[in-house]
Amino acid sequence: MAAGAAGLWLDGAGAAAVGQAREASARLAPLVRPTVPDTFAGCREAIDGVDAAVATLLEHRVALAGRVQRLKPVGGHAGRDPRREAAIVAAMAARAPSVPVDGLARIMGAVIEAGLDAAERDEADETPVWRL
Ligand SMILES: O=C(O)C(=O)C[C@]1(C(=O)O)C=C[C@@H](O)C=C1
């Protein structure tokens, strides 16, 4: 398999490998090759592509957040660290200058809470899909 500017070339790959490669491409394409669509349908398609990448990153972030809870003296919601959360928002603000900082703080607050909720469900023996 090789990746190029226009997509993926698969030589002699089975259907499962082709499916996996398509999914990997869908997840990565919006990051490495952002599109600038000029139609309604094109915009919707591009948004769906970005959402696929966002969902992939959220899934990975939730798994990492779950892992760090198990390494902290006090994990879960009880061990929240407002200074760390503010530093996360400040670092992200530099990369998302079009999103007002208070909006970014609300978004990341929701993301962090979702991660902590998932970690506490995991503690209750509900195995998550992703576990690092
Ligand atoms: O870094 C930590 O201490 C974490 O528990 C992870 C995390 C996060 O999801 O980024 C979650 C809760 C804390 O308030 C701060 C950050």
From TrEMBL:
<dbReference type="GO" id="GO:0046417">
    <property type="term" value="P:chorismate metabolic process"/>
</dbReference>
<dbReference type="InterPro" id="IPR002701">
    <property type="entry name" value="CM_II_prokaryot"/>
</dbReference>
<dbReference type="InterPro" id="IPR036263">
    <property type="entry name" value="Chorismate_II_sf"/>
</dbReference>
<protein>
    <recommendedName>
        <fullName>Chorismate mutase domain-containing protein</fullName>
    </recommendedName>
</protein>
<dbReference type="GO" id="GO:0004106">
    <property type="term" value="F:chorismate mutase activity"/>
</dbReference>
<feature type="domain" description="Chorismate mutase">
    <location>
        <begin position="34"/>
        <end position="123"/>
    </location>
</feature>
<dbReference type="Pfam" id="PF01817">
    <property type="entry name" value="CM_2"/>
</dbReference>
<dbReference type="InterPro" id="IPR036979">
    <property type="entry name" value="CM_dom_sf"/>
</dbReference>
